[in-house]
Amino acid sequence: MNAAVSDQIYKVQDLRVSFPDLSKKPLFGAAPRTQVLKGLTFDVAKGDVLGIVGGSGSGKSTLGRAMIRLLDPDSGSIRFEETEIAHLREDDLRPLRKHFQMIFQDPMSSLNPRRQVGGIIAGPLRLQGFDNIKVRVGEALEMVGLPKSFETRYPHELSGGQRQRVGIARAIALKPDFILADEIVSGLDVSSQAQVLNLLEQLVRELGLTLAFVSHDLSVIRRLCSRILVLHHGEIVENAATAELFDNPQAAYTRTLLDAIPLPDPDQVWA
Amino acid sequence: MPDARGQIRRLPGLRLWLSGGWLLLLVLAAIFAPMISPHDPLEQDLFAARLPPFWEQGADPAYLLGTDSLGRDLLSRMLYGARLALTVALVAGTLTCLVGATLGLIAGYYRGWADLVISRLVDIWMAFPPVLFAILLIAVLGTGLTSIIIAIVVIDWTRFSRVVRAEAMSQGAMDYVASAQVAGRSRLGIALAEILPNVLPTIVALLTLEMGIAVIVEAILSFVNLSISTDQPTWGGMIAEGRTSIYQAWWVLVFPLFALFLTVLSFSQLGEGLKDYFDPVLR
Ligand SMILES: Nc1ncnc2c1ncn2[C@@H]1O[C@H](COP(=O)(O)OP(=O)(O)O)[C@@H](O)[C@H]1O
Ligand SMILES: [Mg+2]
Questions:
Q1: Interchain contact B280–A (C-beta under 8 A)
Q2: Cβ pair B198:A112 closer than 8 A
Q3: What are B56-96's pLDDT values in tens digits?
Q4: What is the DSSP letter of A2?
Q5: What domains appear along chain A, each with residue ranges and CATH number?
């Protein structure tokens, strides 16, 4: 590795997360906890598009949500830029939050149904103390390819693909250093999927985003990501550059994932 | 690109107009009762006792809806009765709503020990039969308007807290709440600015329902003579008096009963209508 320390946006060490298993809760006392992330160590370099793949329940979303501190890790360290955020309290996290943002899987439930699109995008800007909010909202909408008139629409007045664009606009409006995108196309129909992926690809190129892209679909990951992290039962089984991983998969689990990609060539495009 | 989705608006339904109309009429009657009442509601005239309403034989046009067995004007008593019914509905309904919805929101969104305490309290409360509970409370607090309002709040806050708690829990699990946290909104900010607006239509529907219930509770307490002092006209008190002379003068019972029925129905229909109207989400 030739990357200097300051080129890493995230340094994650021995990250452990567990959830209480309520199905095994005794009548009195606390429920036993199941380990979901079992000591993960990896870095994310600036400008990387990191794919996080793995089967359902492998801990992808949990990892993403721990990285942006939507949940509290049991132990381990998460260095974001120069700050250790793994165990920061919410009050201390709040001023940092504009640096790491998230795009959610379900664009319907991630947009407050009682707010108009303009308000949805302006909210985080206002909370994080930005100026020129109207201008920034307009810019964000333009970047995701939505007309300005959508500012006064409610989420239920949009299509699934348009909603997801609003979700993207909300995240990029803050000009964050890092964005987590958790299965952001899996709720969309095929043509919206392609459009949203194209948009994301374009934004990565134009804005130089550092992105963690969670997906269970390796063909999507291959197209978008520069590095890939393969998760299996809460452990990293492989962490490699994209070309390397596809050419020469090391872990047996990665090979089964690769074999599951439908043939013919996933990069094939319709004329 | 023409797209009509932005233009969809619901028309307020017929039931909103009918129920709102009746309640508006009632509010006007209550406010202007001293001016529009043809008689003093307490004035007795034994020579004019049990006069029938205007369309019946032997009616006196000075007493439009007839008189009771003491010769008091029914219309005037109903207008004054509306004052009390509406006061109880508005004050008790609103207070019950504030207490119950606040506790429900805390329990449903903050969870943890607050939820534990509030939910246990609700369970215990639900074990009391409400009417007995009310009578017991009035016996302790003494009769009077304030006691009635306190009794209604104490008994009925659980109706709000249970529903609001469940609703706040399901809203709290939505990604827009996580998204607000990612944006740096505080817990209190999320509860008030994100969750509350989404629970509000439910709260409004419950509030109007509760106003109807408050009217009924007041009437029941008046009926068993536990409400306001007996010389103040109340619909419940009039129903109780009318019951004793149902065969000689049916109107003494029927008119206040009808007003009570319409009012309670209107409150519940108003709630449903408002809920539809104010919901921008056509689920
Ligand atoms: N809030 C939670 N409470 C309890 N268990 C959870 C919770 N969130 C996730 N889990 C469990 O953690 C495991 C990993 O979940 P997740 O990270 O969502 O997987 P993925 O996104 O890879 O499908 C699953 O077994 C899931 O049941
Ligand atoms: Mg997931």
A1: yes
A2: yes
A3: 888 788 888 888 888 889 999 999 999 999 999 999 999 99
A4: -
A5: 8-20+33-259 (3.40.50.300)
